[in-house]
Design goal:
Blueprint: E1 5-11, H1 15-29, E2 33-35, E3 44-49, H2 54-65, H3 68-73, E4 78-82, H4 83-89, H5 92-96, E5 102-104, H6 112-120, E6 125-127, H7 135-138, E7 150-154, E8 156-157, H8 168-171, E9 176-177, H9 180-192, E10 197-201, H10 214-223, E11 230-234, H11 243-251, E12 258-260, H12 268-273, H13 280-293, E13 298-305, H14 312-325, E14 329-334, H15 351-376, E15 380-388, E16 394-399, E17 404-408, E18 417-426, E19 429-434
Parallel strand pairs: 1-2, 1-3, 3-4, 4-5, 5-6, 7-10, 10-11, 12-13, 13-14, 17-19
Antiparallel strand pairs: 8-9, 15-16, 15-18, 16-17, 18-19
Helix pairs in contact: 10-11, 11-13, 14-15
Bound molecules: S-adenosyl-L-homocysteine, iron/sulfur cluster (SF4) and FE3-S4 cluster.
Length: 436
């Protein structure tokens, strides 16, 4: 048998890309590839890319430029671009960077094995279709190799919301849900391989309709799988947060008390210009209902600062909304113009104004995050231990509320959910003591 070929895959962007990268590795495994952690000894390099902001897309081209020397040393090296930049720019990528042999979009990577053969024959391969055949039908079973205790599982893809700033509806296509029986089968495969926590993924995961009971119905079925201890989901849209899902947060024990619910802005004028189809008030009401069902839920959000037309008063409304919610975690971005989106036509705000607002917003969010963490001190929480820490005898895991937690513990805790008393809060983690 010939030696296995080596695949180096670098992943940018959201968790859905992390999931897709795993599946690409598995798909190319059938072609005799094993994953390598370095581009230097690779026979194929794949960049799984993100197009959400300008900087994310530009990173891809600077990374490709670095591979010139490798390709000169090894003419058999094949270089591919996958993901959302591949979908958005297609053949343009090969024109701009002739080193690239292969371009494959997020909905057609199940065709990678055939594309690999094409590039091995010396031709270029391009596939950015939104094919009729479902890639998940081709990519049936998951690898049986032993896994770490946490895994992502994509259940929904695409977006029909068309927020005025966002490329996702163009790069990922229309909303599609995977049938519940397939999701359940994949979840069982993951649990058999050692997974204790599954995070269900979708660009709008709570718009999932592959189960009669929606996402809540799927979560309740998943909760019936022995050995699956924890369930999470991301990312949700406020308008798809239905009563059943809110109720599940109240009474489904395996569903963790953490919810990422992006709002983007607290100004109704800007929300309207963004085409978000909700108001600041309706978002706050929704949060009230969620907290009524699960009082200790940790809320996380996404914010865009400096959307075209944002005034100081609009920004104040965003700060007021943040004050009202109190987030435990948040992601905030300067607005980035994306070609082809409606907002790209609008006049931009001065950079210094946007930078100043981002700093103020991040300072407030940072203060809230620290306050939420500080309140955990003295509490007893569940921690799923994932890996050894840097200090001897120390293990690291994630709490129910998704905080990173360090504790002195034997290696036997790895892969288990154990009770821990939190003793200290540091900027990005908590320290605790094992109780049982
Ligand atoms: N589907 C999710 C998130 C998609 S993208 C949702 O609806 O919330 C993740 C985040 O990137 C968005 O929530 C938004 O805050 C940010 N984002 C998207 N497009 C952007 C742009 N053009 N400029 C800056 N941030 C952007
Ligand atoms: Fe983008 Fe809006 Fe869809 Fe989220 S809901 S992926 S921000 S268009
Ligand atoms: Fe980026 Fe595509 Fe995800 S644009 S955020 S990789 S859906």
């Amino acid at each position: 048998m010939s030696a296995p070929k080596k695949l180096y895959i670098k992943t940018y962007g959201c968790q859905m890309n992390v999931y897709d990268s795993e599946r690409m590795v598995e798909a190319l495994g059938g072609q005799g590839y094993v994953e390598t952690q370095s581009p230097d000894d690779a026979d194929m390099i794949l960049l799984n890319t993100c197009h959400i902001r300008e900087k994310a897309a530009e990173k891809v081209y600077s990374e490709l430029g670095r591979y010139k020397g490798l390709k000169a040393d090894n003419p058999d090296l094949k270089i591919g671009v996958a993901g959302c930049v591949a979908q958005a720019e297609g053949a343009e990528i090969m024109r701009r960077q002739p080193l690239v042999d292969l371009v494959v979009g997020p909905q057609s990577y199940h065709r990678l094995p055939a594309m690999e053969q094409t590039v091995r024959s010396g031709a270029k391969a391009l596939d950015t279709d939104f094919p009729e055949d479902d890639k998940f039908d081709t990519l049936t079973t998951r690898s049986k190799a032993k896994r770490g205790p946490t895994a992502f599982l994509t259940v929904q893809e695409g977006c029909d919301k068309f927020c005025a700033f966002c490329v996702v509806p163009y790069t990922r296509g229309a909303e599609v849900s995977r049938p519940a029986d397939r999701v359940l089968r994949e979840a069982r495969e993951l649990v058999d391989a050692g997974v204790a926590e599954i995070t269900l993924l979708g660009q709008n995961v709570n718009a999932y309709h592959g189960h009669d009971g929606g996402l809540a119905g799927l979560i309740r079925d998943l909760a019936g799988i022995d050995g699956l201890e924890r369930i999470r989901f991301t990312t949700s849209h406020p308008n798809d947060m239905d009563d059943a899902l809110i109720a599940a947060h109240g009474d489904c024990e395996k569903l963790m008390p953490y919810l990422h619910l992006p709002v983007q802005s607290g100004s109704d004028r800007i929300l309207k210009a963004m085409n978000r189809k909700h108001t600041a008030e309706s978002y706050l009401r929704l949060i009230e209902r969620i907290r009524a069902a699960r009082p200790d839920i940790l809320l996380s959000g996404d914010f865009i600062v400096g959307f075209p037309g944002e005034t100081e008063a609009d920004f104040d409304d965003t700060m007021a909304l943040i004050e009202a919610v109190e987030y435990g975690q948040a992601y905030s971005f300067k607005y980035s113009t994306r070609p082809g989106t409606p907002a790209a036509e609008k006049p931009q705000l001065p950079e210094d104004v946007v930078t100043d607002r981002l700093h103020r917003l991040q300072a407030l969010l940072g203060t809230q995050q620290q306050a939420v963490q500080a309140r955990m001190v003295g509490q007893e929480v569940g921690v799923l231990f994932e890996k050894p820490g840097r200090e001897a005898g120390q293990m690291i895991g994630k709490s129910d509320h998704l905080h990173a937690v360090y504790a002195a513990a034997p290696a036997g805790v790895l892969g288990q959910v154990r009770r821990v008393r939190i003793t200290r809060s540091s900027p990005n983690s908590l320290a605790g003591e094992l109780i049982n």
